[in-house]
Amino acid sequence: MTKEEFKIKRFSTTDKQEMLDLLSGAELPVEDLTDKIMKNFMVARDKDNTIIGVVGIEMYQENGLLRSLLVQPAYRGKGLGSKLTREIESIARSNGIKTLYLLTMTAADFFPKFEYQVVPRDRTPESIQNTAEFNSLCPVSAVCLCKTLDSPIRLSPKSTL
User: Fold this and answer.
1) 0.70 surpassed by pTM
2) What is the DSSP-derived secondary structure letter of residue 34?
């Protein structure tokens, strides 16, 4: 997948219905997705301007709940999920989030490569436990993972990656 094949941008209200249709079609929870929550979502669009990927975050002071990472099946395995994950982590860091949590029924094998670790649900902060996703939208069988976010990488003028 080349950079020209997709663009990642912040959610805008014009993305709303298409994004909600995509998420609900993949059986991800949308019942609690208010405009306030969706403002912290990212969407990836292909060259035809169709949403092909989504990720979001709910922010609760120093904790965040990673939401709805989804890549359309035709684009899986091409790095888009990784790019969306890195992008939302960057946004979390820039907003003072120190720890990200998530629940998943299908992607428990995806997140450990980004240093997410399985944690018991009851070990999450109260602010995360009080979300609709934790309380009612995700089954208790969902795997809970968390990651402590490091500070952004700062390069000296001579450094390269």
Assistant:
1) yes
2) -
Q: What is the DSSP letter of 141?
A: T
**129 CB-near residues (< 8 Å, 6+ apart):** 121, 122, 135
For residue 158, pLDDT beyond 70: no
Three-class DSSP category at 6 = strand
Of the CA atoms within 13 Å of residue 123, those in its CB half-sphere come to 11
d(C-alpha 2, C-alpha 109), whole Å: 25
Residue of 49, 47, 117, 52 whose CA lies nearest to 78? 52
What is the average pLDDT across 130-158? 79
pLDDT above 80 (res 55): yes
Residue 64: strand pairing partners = 59, 100
Phi-psi region of 77 (alpha: psi -120 to 50; beta: other; left: phi over 0): left
Separation CA 78–CA 145 (nearest Å): 23
Could you give the strand order of the β-sheet that contains 63-71, starting from the edge strand earlier in sequence? 6-10, 41-46, 51-60, 63-71, 99-104, 143-148, 117-118
